[in-house]
Design a protein that fits this description.
This protein is of the alpha/beta class and 319 residues long. The protein has 10 helices and 12 strands. The strands form 3 sheets. Strands 3-2-1-4-7 form a 5-stranded mixed beta sheet, sandwiched between helices. It has a 5-stranded mixed beta sheet with strand order 10-9-8-11-12, covered by helices on one side.
Length: 319
């Protein structure tokens, strides 16, 4: 039995499983207090993992971390959300504090592993996974094996720079297509006084109580479904940038399937997946047309835990 851990900026998840894709035996969630930093998260891990280890015969731990990692050395490079993780030897810490061996991966890479083996991409030889939420990340799996392990980063589609003039390292796809960027564009549009009078009567303004600072991507999606032009423009901008980026990846790697998860992807077929497929088709190398599928992810909130368990199961199946 193995323990899978997801370490995010807002939540922790702990799952116990066999590491072979079979259903979880146990699942525990904890909220993260950002003010407590990495030290607070480590204390939560110590407590929760000890409880689960006492109830189950844990052989090892798989960890999916929300940020860049060096999986070969078992170190976290940094977190973009929580202080105190810079160059942290997480695998050594787990071994020293819990007495268990551990393996470490980036959360999006492990989500890709899970979706390719036991989720929407099962049975496919090559799967490119994209998560579109607060940020935009990616992972690539071929024949059930993660690509790029041991490299500084891999498949980071959100960090592609659209266009030859994108010399600014911050002018990346994530700045157009993430949930944060969708809400930010809508806020700026309302602040600039762009017309928002349509058949919904200014749905965005109603949802945010005339305070654009309170807008979220979920609110923008709701307003877009009612025909709000600013909201629709925000989603059109996002799907075009993401479609361009996926087309570049598909042209280079020719995956059989593109699986898309994350909160923004749950905006649905009409608002998100339909327009996205059209944008991919606009930019992709023509001979590849019709050679791939673009589908929603299947595994939901436990996807990183499932991937961490698969990583652990693969690691110790060799022993």
């Amino acid at each position: 039995m193995f323990l899978g851990i997801e370490i995010g900026g807002t939540k922790l998840q702990f799952g116990v499983g066999a590491g072979d894709g079979t259903p979880l035996f146990a699942l525990t969630r904890r909220k993260v207090d950002p003010a407590a930093g990495a030290a607070g998260i480590l204390e939560q891990i110590r407590e929760a993992a000890a409880e689960l280890a006492a109830a189950h015969s844990i052989r090892g731990i798989g960890v999916g971390f929300g940020g860049p990692v060096d999986g070969t050395k078992g170190r976290v490079r940094k977190s973009h959300h929580i202080t105190g993780w810079e160059n942290f030897p997480l695998v050594d810490w787990l071994r020293g504090n819990l007495g268990l061996p551990a393996v470490l991966g980036n959360d999006c890479d492990l989500a890709a592993l899970a979706e390719s083996r036991i989720g929407a991409g099962r049975g496919k030889g090559s799967v490119f996974y994209v998560t579109v939420g607060t940020g935009v990340g990616g992972g690539y799996v071929v024949n059930g094996k993660l690509q790029g392990q041991g490299r500084p980063s891999v498949a980071e589609i959100g960090h592609l720079r659209p266009g030859l003039d994108a010399v600014d390292p911050d002018r990346i796809v994530e700045r157009f297509a993430s949930g944060w960027s969708i809400a930010s564009y809508a806020r700026r549009s309302l602040g600039e006084g762009r017309s928002n009078t349509d058949r919904s009567g200014g749905r965005l303004q109603e949802l945010c109580g005339a305070d654009p600072a309170g807008l979220t991507a979920k609110m923008v999606a709701e307003a877009a479904r009612s025909g709000d032009p600013v909201a629709l423009a925000a989603f059109s901008r996002a799907t075009r940038a993401l479609g361009w980026a996926i087309a570049q990846v598909a042209t280079l790697l020719s995956p059989e399937m593109v699986v898309i998860g994350g909160g923004v992807s749950r905006s649905g077929e009409e608002l998100f997946f339909g327009p996205l497929r059209k944008e991919i088709q606009r930019y992709i190398f023509p001979p590849l047309a019709g050679s791939y599928q673009v589908v929603p992810a299947e595994l939901g909130e436990t996807v990183v835990v499932e991937g961490a368990l698969l990583l652990a199961g693969t690691e110790w199946s060799r022993v």
